[in-house]
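Our consortium's second objective concerns turning raw sequence data into structural hypotheses that experimental partners can test. To show how far this objective has progressed, the report includes one record in full. It was chosen at random from the queue rather than selected for favorable results. The single chain below, 280 residues long, was entered without modification.
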Amino acid sequence: MKTAIVTDSTAYIPKEMRDKLNIHMVSLNVIFGTEAYLEEVDITATEFYQEVKNADKLPTTSQPPIGMFVEKFEELAKEYDAVITIHLSSGISGTYQGALSAGEMVDGIEVFGFDTEISCMIQGFYVIEAAKMAMDGKEPLEILERLSEMKKSARAYFMADDLGHLQLGGRLSSAAALIGSLLQVKPILVFENKVIVPFEKIRTRKKAMKRIVELLGEDANSGGSYKAAIIHANREQEAEEWKAELEAQFPNVEFVISYFGPVIGTHLGEGAMGMGWYKV
């Protein structure tokens, strides 16, 4: 059985890697006023953060129309027997459900869904693993079993410089945002039951990042090999410096640098930093 791998743009997998691994992408939209942009196609992360600085008000985001998935699956049906479509958490976006609904509308190809319950490059890790297995000719159920196994060790923690973006976008409760702004804290956030919730309230950015490293250490120091992504919102130099420090501290962890692109950056705001990992 020949299996295609589909994901959405919030995995932020570089185009060269998507091309190399034959990963198919459907984009979410970021909207400035009346102008809608397909992220990773019409607008890059760098362009997005510059646009935000020039905009009168914050952009909004929207999931792909079901028709985009239908079109993608119909195109893939000409060459493939099955699709595994892998998406950001269904608790913060309707993208996953839209993909499943589209799969029911297309004949000639079997569509399997996988809800990563997370986003960004941690979502990307699932996609990359699935794509490599698909290229090796693995069956869909075997691939899905591996992704479920990865989920057991997958962790991700992140912090936003300004909780206002998450509050305005409805991705964090008003009460949590209010507490954060009053105390001037830099809360560490986490995905729990598919939605974003505060994990710990920490006073400063430096302490928040240090705490994330401690959480990585709890896993990495227990043995085994890990893969981790450092994720930044327009803070590439800071991410590079953090990576250098962490590589010296955790020789059993392979680190990559990724970013919060337009859609996720809309909700987290510039300056956000995060890290996620899984046991290889």
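The partners drew two points from this record. The domain at 3-28+63-151 is CATH 3.40.50.10170 (Rossmann fold). The chain has two domains: 3-28+63-151, 155-279. Both points have been shared with the crystallography group to help prioritize constructs.
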